[in-house]
Amino acid sequence: MKSNTLNSGYEYTVAHISRKDSGGGAARAVVRLHRSLMKCSEIQSLLYVAVKHLEEANTIGPRCNFGKAINALRPHLLKPIIDRRQTGLRSLNLLPSRWPSKIKNADIAHLHWIGSETLRLEELQIFRQPVVWTCHDMWPFSGCRHVTSEMLPSDWLDSWVWRRKQKTYARSNIHFVAPSRWIQDRIRQSEVTKTWDVLHKYPSDY
User: Fold this and answer.
1) Cβ atoms 34, 56 nearer than 8 A
2) Angle at the Cα of 76 from the Cα atoms of 70 and 61, rounded to 5 degrees
3) pTM of the model
4) DSSP secondary-structure letter at 189?
């Protein structure tokens, strides 16, 4: 088993951050990518998750029951703010995390599905390394909704998260990745991300 210590003789270290390592297309995609990168002798791939289900090499999750309980509780703490009359999953990403400091020695931070308070949105601007963000759904380039038919904010909560993203992205070093042509087109249409470069790669969520 490879070491999960940062920069243990590798040329590059990629630190993936994902809500979880199992359940859903985004989780399957990050695990597949993580496994592929571990086969490269020059690259150290480390997968950091808030909710850990698998016994996968180089995957780091909460180490104690208290940490597991806190991460499970985080998405529920802000539910009173979210309008329950609206359907669909929403994320505010308001609660702070320690991800930037945990991976400070990595060469690349690769974000995947980070909703449900996995990290605070404003923390994007304090990562020391370039941030690659694979858009597994619409949340990175919309307001607080993960899936929406509207490319503009639909209510006050949407608008608030939208403005936070515009401000934070302008101060961050982010490179967006689209796993489909459809996602790529939506990134380029969104007022939040239309000025950003986006890389289209092969479908990874299926």
Assistant:
1) yes
2) 35
3) 0.91
4) H
